[in-house]
Amino acid sequence: MLLTHLLLPDILDLVEAGRLTEVREFLVTQPVPDVAEFLTVLDNRARVLIFRILPRAFADEIFSLLEPTFQNLLLSEMTNEEVQTVLSALPPDDRTALFEELPARVTKSLLALLNDRDRKQALELLSYPESSVGRLMTDRYVKVRPEWTVAQALEHLRRFGVDSETMTMIYITDDHGRLVDDLRLRKLILSKPQIKVADLLDGQCVSLYTLDDREDAIQIFKKYDLYAMPVVDADRVLIGIVTLDDILDVAEEEATEDFHKLAAAQPLQESLRDATIGLLFRKRIGWLLALVGVNIFSGAGISIFEDTIQKVVALVFFLPLLTGSGGNAGAQTSTLMVRAIATGELENGDWWRFFIREIGVSGCIGALMGGAVFLLGCVRGGWHMGVVVFFSMLSVVMMGSLLGILLPKVLDKLRLDPATASSPLIASVADILGILIYFSIATAILNV
After folding, report:
1. This prediction's pTM
2. Looking at residue 288, which CATH number applies to its domain?
3. How far is CA 206 from CA 104, 195, 210, 251, in A?
4. Residue range 225-255, pLDDT digits in tens
């Protein structure tokens, strides 16, 4: 970005020279997202100084685009009055996202700075489960009545739509606040003024419930291709709306979390750039120690076949090759499986079809890889050794692939995160089973 990479030194020189008016006049002509990104590369002193010289409305927009880490840094340098102004200007969903990332003590002190209405609203949103749609809602939307005419509805939009987070969809409610339908603004504008709103409705409104899981909401947004969706309670009373930008943030968080878990690391709640050595140590050491415990069984498996290894030392040559192939095959399949579960691609009936298909695919791959190592086995230990490594390769590749399917599926059935079936975990389990399969085949074929 030009603002960050090319103009940063010049802007900092103006700040050091005290020419803050020039800095302000330049930044307000730039796109808000670019200025928000620019603030993240500054040190905290310069960040706070530049943020304070910006026009209030412009600064509020920038603040809403910053990550919670940078929002917290700015808040820590502000007076109570400044904090109150900034928090009040935040959309309810963005304010909730900020409070989620802060320690309870800090959140409590910030809540005390809000007015009664904003405090009540913030507490209501925070009362919903952390992974629920309720935490993503905003009350900045427009609703109209079905008995109004188009002219009345448009007049209502002009009066009360200023603070609405989106005007793409208009929501229709009855006397009790229950959601009746939704209506695209375009359709409302293009209709004749005297037509009743009820005559424009098609009864095909899709809504979310406050307790719906965020990951399920991602799939619903994807299916219906909407910019915003209404959120209702058990009585279908309209509580708020969720917009696409919030769903995209959730999708990014979930994808990042799955990537971290697939690498056997606990998810980071902040960017890697800002993570400390201590935090990275804590996030990674737990799984690594657990995998050490799992890998102990690999050594135990080898000790069972100690006599076989002593009599046919050439078997050791192929051990890393075979166990590594099983782990790699399992990691490939588990990645596909975890992704399919996360995106809802596999239904219960589809799972069995995928399982049977994977048997065929892994069998073909294992046979091809087995054929490649057969010749090497013949060179190292004769045709008997070639047969051993062929069937061992075929078996461990199929075993690893099926393990990559079964473990995520079992975790999903137990209502645990399938991403916990990480590549290192699959590889470690596949190593243990691969050792047992390899030496069992060798013992049987070589008559050791």
Report:
1. 0.60
2. 1.10.357.20
3. 35, 24, 14, 20
4. 888 899 998 888 998 899 888 888 887 777 6
